[in-house]
Records
---
Amino acid sequence: MTADRPTGDSRAWRSALLARVVAEIEAEIRRAWERLLLALEVEPDSAEAVELAWLVAEDPAAYDWRTVDGALDRLSCPTCGSRLAQGPAACETCEFHHRMRFGAREVDRRHVPPGNEHALRVASAVTRTRHRYSARARVGYELTLPDLVAGALPTTRQAQAGKALINKLTDDECDRVVSFAQVEQLARGR
């Protein structure tokens, strides 16, 4: 594992709510990885665990997305040295594994609308690798993430309306807003 600061560090997030939600998602990711290690009787932090993490990273379709993200979090990129899939956007190895993560399985949680798990997974990936995305993509996914964790799923119409408002903001405004109310206020009249 690399020495990078945890992605859930609250100093990095646009709001305390987002910091809490990211910490919750990262705890789920750690638990999913730990369950796989336990099921296969693999010692954490062992050479066998690293080998398993590479196997998961190379075949994400065989695992739930949280398990895949847990494996990626435990690997260093051989090209750039960052946590795998979280290195600079120019790192082809990180970019490859970042895209591969989307091949992992998604099973909707109980009592959420169909598609919520996919939306949660995409928003989580964008939020946890925010440097790979534009300011407009980051703000949309980051502001939506707490509602997705709570089980909501915006309609296509709601998502398109939110995107239309976000597209009226500057990159700097996108990076500063902490709520959709602020997005609406800034976009009003433009």
Note: Confidence is low (pLDDT under 50) at residues 1-11.
---
Amino acid sequence: MTEAADSLLLERAGLPDDLRWLAEKYPREVWQGHDNIHGIANMWLQRHDMFRELGGLLTNGIRDYREGRLTAPEFARWFAPRLNHFLGHLDGHHNVEDIHYFPVFAKAETRLKRGFEILDADHHTIHEGLERNAEAANAFIRTLRESEDKQRFAADAYADENSRLIAMLTRHLADEEDLIIPLILDRGDRALGID
């Protein structure tokens, strides 16, 4: 699944038009002012913002190291806990969505079932990206006591994996929000059974 699935996710410009009818009824511009944006919809957006922020921190951290603003020991102390937090929480979040929320949402609105199948497939692709990211990060951390050339090579490899993961995650989070937030706004937390 790896490279082909990555490409499908990375090349997707958004959800197919036939899955966007609720997003057109409830465009992003009205989410903040909608009566029902509290509750689960608000929690969903906050969680996604956290993932975007953590992804940005990791991207900036590796850049700071590569540009000499952090020494290898400083970077290792800073990097490892943030990476573990990011990878662990993202994997856990996707598991809860796949096991609990997506089936509830797909049952509530069967016309969106294919959209939830797309999101579920994304999760598998992103999980593989998480594993590659962790492997590249571990390889990089192992080089922090070796030559600068090895460190630079490993840092570049990690930066490439991180960029790819963040790009996949960015596309996925936007598509997930465009499918889920309008559904919650249309039906409400209670009607969906997720309050």
Note: The mean pLDDT is 88.
